[in-house]
Amino acid sequence: MKRVFRKVFSSRKTPSAPSSLPQNIEEIRQKALKGHHLEIVQWGQVLLNSIYVPKDPVSALEWFTIAARAGFGPGHNMRGRCFQFGWGCEKDLTEAARCYEEAAKAGDEWGRYNLGILTMRGIGQPQNLPKALALFRTAAQNGHAKSMNLYARFLEEGWVVPQDRAAALDWYRQSAEGGDYRGQHNFATALADAGQVEDALGWWRKAVVDATSDILLAMSQKLALLGEKRDQALEEHVQIRLRDLGISIPENVNVRPM
């Protein structure tokens, strides 16, 4: 580990930290400096997007690289995120896919999920739906809520797997209970379609808090179809979130998000 530190930081000094860091952040920094793998990744994330230190994506990538070279799955995964979005480096989708592949091999469920997304869409590598299915299924079975939602979608649609809507509903439920807003929306949609509107509204109320624009637009459309069972307060919450994101609601939109 010491050799890795020397190699990575041989051409520059380790970034200094403000003296007024909150105790929990300072503890992460100190453990990172001592070579603890989890805290190395966490300190990189602090440098990437924390309000407590100036953003330094280049240094963040270097810390993720240290963890990755030590064989730590989350380090590979965060390196992949950097290359996918160009954080501290030039965007390189092929390298991002390679990093996610290494993360998945190391047993990191976020790495499996992110590799599954790229593989499903053919980003940074050829599209391969059977491989994407296998990645989502493994991560779902290991408790990864976002992967549960996508595994459910494969089952619901019958993509490279026999269609099984009952199993899909159960995986959507597990994803929703695991806190994934996409799973919550999809589970709520299935419940509403089955006439269980009150239960559906409960899950939509959870989903609206963190949902991205695609889910909010789909939610708005579904809520408008509930007739006398519509929840005006929830619909207003959706509208407010969309306005905050600078998005107006188009008419006749019928695109189902993942």
Labels describing this entry:
258 residues, Sel1-like, Sel1 repeat family protein, globular, single chain
Written description of the protein model:
The chain is mostly helical and 258 residues long. It has 14 helices and no strands. The protein has helices at residues 2-8, 23-33, 37-49, 57-69, 73-85, 93-105, 109-121, 129-141, 145-157, 165-177, 181-193, 197-207, 213-223, 232-244. Helix 6 (93-105) crosses helix 7 and helix 11 packs antiparallel against helix 12. The radius of gyration is 21 Å and the shape is globular. 41% of the residues are buried. Residues 6-16 have low confidence and may be disordered. It holds the Pfam family Sel1. InterPro entries: Sel1-like, Sel1_AlgK, TPR-like_helical_dom_sf. It comes from Gluconobacter thailandicus. This is Sel1 repeat family protein.
Main sheet attributes: strand count, strand direction, barrel closure? none
Give the oligomeric state of the chains in this entry, treating copies of one chain as homo and distinct chains as hetero.
single chain
Shape: globular
The SSE string, one letter per element, is HHHHHHHHHHHHHH
Helix-strand layout with pairing:
Elements: H1 2-8, H2 23-33, H3 37-49, H4 57-69, H5 73-85, H6 93-105, H7 109-121, H8 129-141, H9 145-157, H10 165-177, H11 181-193, H12 197-207, H13 213-223, H14 232-244
Helix pairs in contact: 2-3, 3-4, 4-5, 5-6, 6-7, 7-8, 8-9, 9-10, 10-11, 11-12, 13-14
